[in-house]
Amino acid sequence: MSGHHWTIHIEKDDISQTNLVRSETMPSLAQGEIEVAVRRFALTANNITYATLGKSFGNWTDMPGYWAFFPTASDDKGQLPVWGFAEVTRSSHPDIQVGEELYGYFPMASHLIMRPSHISASTLVDGAEHRQPLAPVYNQYNRVSDMTELLEDEKDLWPVFRPLLVTGYMICDQYHENNYYGAEQILITSASSKTALMTAKCFSLFENAPKLVGVTSQRNKAFVEKSGLYDDVISYDQIKDQVRIPSAMIDMAGNGEVIGDIHHHFEDQLTFSLLVGISHWDAARPAKDLPGPKVSPFFAPGRIKQRTAEWGGGELRQRMNAAWEAFSGLAPALTELTILEGPKEAESAYKALVAGDINPAQSLVISL
User: Which of 84, 233, 280, 329 could form a disulfide with 159 if both were Cys (CB 3.0 to 4.6 A apart)?
Assistant: First the structure.
């Protein structure tokens, strides 16, 4: 396997700058470790949020940022986390065999060395020392042989949509628990993004959800309307024309101008303001002195950890599977899967996402 190891380094201070790095050496395995080869992963706007929050989560949580999951030898460069499938290619662990397939959180690279712990028939945890202070949900991997919920013809949809469906469900769960913050409507910005679409779909699983308004660019408006997931769809320049009724906001992109427009228009009629993602990495962040409620960051791993403790892992998994079953039939109408092959295509696709050049109707899956 010499010469087949590679990774894509991203500049931490300018996430648009990348470097494809190849290695002719094969790292050794310590006892209890395994090496996996990343076989297939998705790239979405969610990955740009990972890069934007790579160095720090700020006031979202006291955990290190996303670069901490797969550190490099350089303090200036990071490896992007992605969701996908990998195959065990070497093993020094008695309970993990070569050839086993895992689903979970991997670097945008050819390989990853892991230290399996907390092994069950269905899951394992990467017990590498540097990952212990990090969000547990990202450290757990599914053993594909036990994933009865994973249908073969939906396999490429999983890394694209499944993590975002979990995030969307957790957002809806928080809103439902708080009686939707008294809102008569919920505005979801970047409504064409996959996280927004998943959130909109998940609201249909909760009782008494208020009207959903998708807020998007003029060029994506037709796509968002065609999805059928929102009660109404408006463009950003129509925010100022909306009736001022009790409203809540879910922002997916972190664009300070859009957030400011909503706060300034609705003022005291804005009952809650939730910031979920920062895919608009080069836009200004929201001002601190906005009228209406304080912008509250949403950290999905924290919500998942809370609900796992309250519901138990089994019930959480059942709820996610039910939500996935409710969504999966819609996927073919919402997206066109584009399969790209190899590290150079992965690097180019990442750069296109950073530049905002990907059609929302397109889903990128990288095959290695």
Answer: 84
Query: Percent of the chain, pLDDT > 90?
Result: 76
Q: CA Rg, the chain, in Å?
A: 20
DSSP string spanning 203-237? Answer: HTTSTT--EEEEEE-GGGHHHHHHHT--SEEEEGG
- Burial label, 243 (beta-carbon count in 10 A; 0-12, 13-18, 19+): exposed
DSSP per position, 189-209? ESTTSHHHHHHHHHHTTSTT-
Mean pLDDT of the region 186-215: 95
CA neighbor of 279 nearest in space, from 302, 259, 255: 255
- Which one-letter amino acid corresponds to residue 73? A
What are the φ and ψ backbone dihedral angles of 319, each rounded to 5 degrees?
A: -65, -40
> Which DSSP string corresponds to 316-338?
HHHHHHHHHHHHHTTHHHH-EEE
CA separation for the pair 91, 93 (Å, rounded): 5
Q: How far is CA 144 from CA 19, 97, 205, 283, in A?
A: 31, 13, 27, 39
With beta carbons less than 8 A apart as the criterion, state whether 80 and 124 touch: no
Contact 281/51 with Cβ under 8 angstroms?
A: yes
DSSP per-residue codes, 149-193: T--GGGTTHHHHHHHHHHHHHHHHHHHHHTGGGG-SEEEEESTTS
**DSSP label at 356?**
T
Give 301-352 pLDDT, tens digit per residue. 889 999 999 999 889 999 999 999 999 888 888 889 999 999 999 999 999 9
Measured CA to CA, the distance from residue 149 to residue 143 in angstroms comes to: 12
Q: How far apart are the first and last CA of the chain?
A: 14
**Other beta carbons less than 10 A from residue 249's beta carbon:** 27
Amino acid, single-letter form, for residue 119: I
Q: Which residues pair with 321 in a beta bridge?
A: none
- Which residue's structure tokens are 């706060």? 263
Looking at this protein, which amino acid is placed at residue 148?
A: T
Check residue 274 and report its DSSP letter: E
CA distance 351 to 45: 11
pLDDT of residue 285: 60
Give the model's pLDDT for residue 1: 38
